[in-house]
Design goal:
Elements: H1 16-25, H2 54-71, E1 76-78, E2 83-84, E3 93-94, E4 98-101, E5 112-113, H3 114-117, E6 122-126, H4 137-147, E7 151-155, E8 165-171, E9 174-177, E10 184-187, E11 192-199, E12 202-209, H5 219-231
Parallel strand pairs: 2-5, 6-7
Antiparallel strand pairs: 1-4, 2-3, 4-6, 7-8, 8-9, 10-11, 11-12
Length: 236
């Protein structure tokens, strides 16, 4: 019995359903289609005036440089960029002192929109007496819950020893504060350890230790250590 085959010579002869598949396969974009109304653009600001103490600046910058060096270009690290999670409401935002999104290549982003890149895995807030974003901590904590961050760290360099470090973990879709003893606790999001230590001339700062308990270094610290070793006559 002969097998009957047919070939569509043009899209005009295709059934509507087949035509739709053929058009989509050619990469049709939404901006080439006709719509019933024009879009209403929303403005998502990239910056705002926020006063910052020098200690806050040094701790924040150190953490940003440390994480960017340790994680490399395959993961995104931000510092004080606005993070948005509500596509229809630019008022729902935060500006973490440092944040990390694993598995998304780093770029020169001006803002972070979670509906495009996903929620950060880690966010760090450094307490400053000159905080100028107008948000109380309870409001910030609620917003981080909405954002969907997996680990939230709050570091207060002026608090007493043992009270400087507070951490929240996402458990069953809730941000739950963990029990922290002393000035060290695991960084569950990255597999390292948070350590309160001197950073960049600030006696009480925040940094990370690796799985072997060694303090992780910024690129600048690694270069300084190498120069010191060479001056001392060390071998590679």
């Amino acid at each position: 019995m002969p097998v009957l085959t047919s070939t569509l010579s043009s899209t005009e002869s295709a059934p509507p359903f087949t035509l739709g598949i053929m058009m989509m396969s050619k990469g049709m974009r939404a901006d080439t289609l006709r719509h019933l109304r024009a879009p209403v653009p929303l403005h998502f600001p990239e910056s705002a005036e926020m006063p910052e103490s020098k200690i806050h600046l040094l701790i924040r910058t150190f953490l940003f440089q440390l994480l960017r060096h340790a994680l490399g270009p395959s993961h995104s690290v931000g510092s004080e960029q606005f993070v948005y999670w509500a596509p229809t409401d630019p008022r729902r935002c935060l500006a973490p002192d440092v944040f990390v999104k694993l598995g998304v290549g780093d770029s020169l982003f001006g803002t972070w929109k979670s509906w495009r890149h996903g929620a950060p895995d880690l966010a760090v807030e450094v307490v400053s007496p000159n905080e100028g974003d107008g948000l109380e901590w309870d409001e910030k904590l609620a917003r981080y819950g909405e954002l969907g961050v997996m680990e939230l760290v709050r570091f207060d360099p002026e608090a007493a020893e043992g009270a400087r470090l507070r951490v929240w973990d996402r458990m069953d879709e809730d941000l739950v504060e963990r029990e922290v003893t002393g000035d060290s606790t695991p960084c569950d999001a990255l597999g390292w350890t948070w350590v309160v230590s001197e950073v960049g001339g600030v006696p009480v700062g925040l940094r990370l230790g690796d799985a072997e308990g060694r303090l992780m270094l910024t690129r600048e610290e690694e270069l300084e250590a190498e120069v010191a070793r060479l001056r001392a006559g060390g071998t590679p």
